[in-house]
Amino acid sequence: MAIQKEERGFGDTLLNFNKKIGVAKLANSIAKLAGYEDCGCEDRAEVVNQWFPYKTEDKKDQNEEPNE
Question: Is 8 helix (H, G, I), strand (E, B) or coil?
Answer without folding.
Answer: coil
